[in-house]
Amino acid sequence: MAIGCKIVKDFKRPDQKLVERFRDMPVANIDDNMGRIAAVDTAIEPVGKGQLLGTAFTVRVPQGDNLMFHAAMDLAQPGDVIVIDAGGFTDRAIFGELMATYCKVRGIRGIICDGAIRDKNGLASMEDFPVYARSATPNGPYKNGPGEINVPVVIGGKVVRPGDIVVGDDDGIVIIDPAIADEIADATIAVEKKESDIMKHILEDGTYIRPWVDDKLDEIGCEVL
Question: Measured between alpha carbons, how far is 93 from 118 in angstroms, rounded to an integer?
């Protein structure tokens, strides 16, 4: 047995209707309903624009090596998001525009890399294919392995398991366990309704009613002169 070298070809994916509940939901609102501590490290930044939404297909690679990502591109299914744990190593790119384009053609929804990319301008110009990464560098990858596919990985300080729901936008990324996804979606819809009502009052009558502010100031004994 080769330790640290394993490919799991398939895993249980959530129902697509469950994934689609998060379509166009702001990540900030989702995170508010996940204890406000669910977002991955802010150093993993979006390249380009648009919502990232899909099912996590996880890859772990050694620093600066993309052999297992090459294997993953042929195994991932339409609707998956390839999530690459590259150990946060930023001196050698794991992929660029060529590999990302192949993923897009295969129906993959996007890529997250806790590591480096290259061809940043090309990736940023791709339509409907969000990419997130920790850095960009022209240095290309090795292709020696080992690595693992579809095992739990760590991305920006958060554990990601195959089949988790991935949601990303310009603010960042959250990872959602399908077992609690309906609960999170319901709560987020309620937050969006509340914020819509607040915005309506701000725009129409110039009010932003927040009685809790005065209550909190009283609680902490703030002196008002």
Answer: 6
